[in-house]
Amino acid sequence: MSENTKISLGTFVGIGMAMIATVRSVPTLAAASWQMFFYMTFAIIFFALPVSLMSGEFSAMLQDAGGPQLWVRTGLNQKWGFTTAWLLWVQIFPGMVMVASTLGPLFGNTIGNVSLGQNHWFTLGCIIVIYWIITILNLKFDMVKIAGNFGVWFGVYIPFAVMIVMGVAATIKTGINAQSVLGTFSPEKLLPDVSTFKYVAAICFIFTGIETLGVYVPRMKDATHDFVSGVVFALVAMVILNILNAICVADVVPDGTTELTNITQPVILFCKILNWPLWIANVFSFLAAVGVFLQLSGWVTGPSQTMIQVAREGLIPSSWGFFKHNNIGVARNVILTQSTCITLFALMYAFPDINGIFLMLTNTTTLLYCVIYFLIAIAFIRLRYTEPDMTRPYRVGKHGNMAAWVWTVFFIFGILSIAIVTLSTAGVVSAVSMIVITIVLTVIPLFINAHKKEQWLKDAQAYAASRK
């Protein structure tokens, strides 16, 4: 690889921050009050660092396209590789509804109608209408290129900057507000409490997606040194930004009134405290809504590419037509299927408990990811023994497998802890619903694989030949 295509440590850190930076998690982190410090530390040690290190070794060792699907297939077998690909796709069903649920409050605040943004029917309508508009646009245009960096700027950088500047100014002016979510400080408030356990999964999964950093290992000038340094630096920077933002938000939002889907709520309060015009909150809401719209556009076709690939390999019934795509590489059948499923998940907002539905969607996505991450962890440690001599340009631990075992145990402990806490705090109905959804969506690819037919691959190959 040419030196001109190599990336420096600074560039790698920037990429890492862009991948995991989001203001959507700030209200949830703020809701944990002083305990946010404990939960963030747990998330780093038992989730973010282990998965980052594992993905670094995997990506350096297996440089073909495929990501987690390829890792699990190589470490375990094709069945579990296909299951990983499937779960990476279906997790967007509840995941995209969770992300899109911020659109209702954002549109309501854009026009200065806060109560409208808090209406669950309006939130439901926004999710369905906006997502289908995005779906239609993705079928006609290359929305990934159109969205590009604009989604990151409008959805991440600008909102982060505005919230931090306003939040710090408001906190300096008011000091610690005893009636806020944050409340007064005492050492025991740093320890975890049952009342905040329900936020653990959402806080840990602030770092979801960081495993994709591993794909940049082959392009780094000194992967052995720079990868770990870059990951740690990016994590520390994001922890500081998230914690600073969350503290400012928790210090102005009255205790018991946090709106998890409404990232404009603290901005409105900042404006009132600082005596700044409320149109700042309106503009903030509009830009953030545009950012969410563009980011959703980029995510519509991303996970679907995995399904196109496994369909080409003959792992999906050919009658589904998942291997068929248009001139811009978009598989119409895949996109329409996922949009229909997302619409069904969105119907949960027919119930008025917006915060409760948001957490349930977050936690359902979390459980699906837990299955994926568990498979990655098992594949990682198994590959150390089945392929000990495979070239590893970046390796977790210079010698032996002790370091690999330590991080694998940490990771599995973190995954199981997240899953157990998530289910134990969800309530019986929500917990049962999440378990059923996770089991059903995990069993489906296993059932498909058990009934795989050679004709599926022949049909996919015939279609590919007809496109040449």
UniProtKB/TrEMBL annotation:
Alphabetical GO CC annotations of the entry are:
plasma membrane
- Give the InterPro entries listed for this entry: AA/rel_permease1, APC_superfamily
Q: Which GO terms describe its molecular function?
A: transmembrane transporter activity
* Location(s) in or outside the cell: Cell membrane
Q: How does this protein lie in the membrane?
A: Multi-pass membrane protein
Q: Which UniProt keywords apply?
A: Cell membrane, Membrane, Transmembrane, Transmembrane helix, Transport
Q: Does the keyword S-adenosyl-L-methionine apply?
A: no
Name the residues that span the membrane: 7-26, 32-53, 86-108, 120-139, 151-176, 196-218, 230-253, 273-294, 330-351, 357-381, 402-422, 428-448
Name the PANTHER family on file. Answer: AMINO ACID TRANSPORTER-RELATED (PTHR42770), GLUTAMATE_GAMMA-AMINOBUTYRATE ANTIPORTER-RELATED (PTHR42770:SF15)
**What name goes with this protein?**
Amino acid permease
**From what organism does this protein derive?**
Limosilactobacillus oris DSM 4864
